[in-house]
Amino acid sequence: MGIIPVIISGGVGSRLWPLSRKKYPKPFLPLGESGTLIGATYARAAGLDGVKTIITVTNRDLLHLTDDAYAAVAASGVSNAFILEPFGRDTAAAIALATLHAGQAHGPDAVLLILPADHMITDTAAFAHGVERAEELADQGRIVTFGIPPDRPETGFGYIETDGGDVLGFVEKPDADTAADYVASGRFLWNSGMFCFSAGTMLNALEAHCADILSATRAALEAAQVSTSGDRLDIGVDAETFATVRAHSIDYAVMEKAENLACVPVSCGWSDIGSWGAMAELAPGDGKDNHAGGQAILQGSRNCYVDARDNLVGLVGVDDLVVVATPDATLVARKDHAHAVKDLFAQLEEQDRPEAVEHRTVRRPWGSYTVLEEGAGYKVKRIEVKPGGRLSLQSHKHRSEHWTVVRGVAIVVNGDETLTLAANQSTYIPCGAKHRLENRGEETMALIEVQCGDYLGEDDIVRYDDIYGRS
Q1: At what angle do helices 211-222 and 199-209 cross, to 10 degrees?
Q2: CA–CA separation, 385 vs 463, rounded Å?
Q3: Once rounded to an integer, what is the mean pLDDT over residues 164-190?
Q4: Where are the domains of the chain?
């Protein structure tokens, strides 16, 4: 049996706000021709020799984004198992879930390869060679971590101290002087967050070092709702039981305590894309250390990074800035303070700002909607439904809606009627009426929705039927 990749897709990527948000996090950010980070991770995993199944552990609310990212890769001959967490409990619980499932489905000798969903690797051949070596060590009962040989002192990464292939210890993110000493010594590697082990070996380690996490996670998995469709398996982890799982990282829970560790150094063009500095390296430069993506004009400026995908941004006579513009939020930071964006994001969370949660354009399993304008008693949206997309049969207690189709053909259930509406045709949906929107065509359908009422929150929805399991 070949190796089983496990893609761990969790966390927000708060350092990349305002692009990364809770409901549209870092793994799904578009990166030009590279697609998305999670899509590239999936393609890299599927391309390894002998891979027949891939396990993905993610939040159930992100499943539709994951499906879209994987569909864009179109890997063939690979079955998929999705372990859907109701909420995050950090990497120890996520890895425990995947290991328990793999042990049950494939036996204790199954070898798992843990891959964060939001990392970039440019040398896939070197990566594959490192995986082969790690699989050999995992078959010998070792828990393998992948170390990245550092090419510079870096204060944003954790380090692994090594002696040959043995791990002497893990070190948290150091200050600049300590990082320089680490690089000069030749004994330290960057901690990539990628691991390899057999299911039986990891289960023994979890039992020895964090038995409470393993026990509670096993109970949540045993109570899960399971569905299958062809070569796809969906495992919906039980929320009530999973709430009892202690949140802890795998580094603290197991890696810093286990004695059967090994390290495989691998130079594979690795980056965790964990900062705006890392994002800047992906954008084209202008010879003045400026990097820009999207629409940007820079005059008399140096060492700046601009990400302006929707609006034009102009910089004049400034140095060392990061400017990221989205339709509803703009970040301006000095480059040497960009690490503190995570603290700004924490303030947004404390203030319950919607800009921490989602963008003005919100993705849904059936397509997306964009809020164009809103005020007291009204809201205007543009709704796009992809081919085959079907909204839930629903009603609202506090608002009426008026739909006008602007592209494609909409199949609309409005009360007791079923209507077929083409561009420039419309229908009015009274408050309380059951209604549904569907696109049976081959092109994306778009309409303008005008809501009127005394409450226009997204939670004013009563669902009666839904093909995406939300009713």
Answers
A1: 120
A2: 18
A3: 91
A4: 4-271, 284-350, 361-465
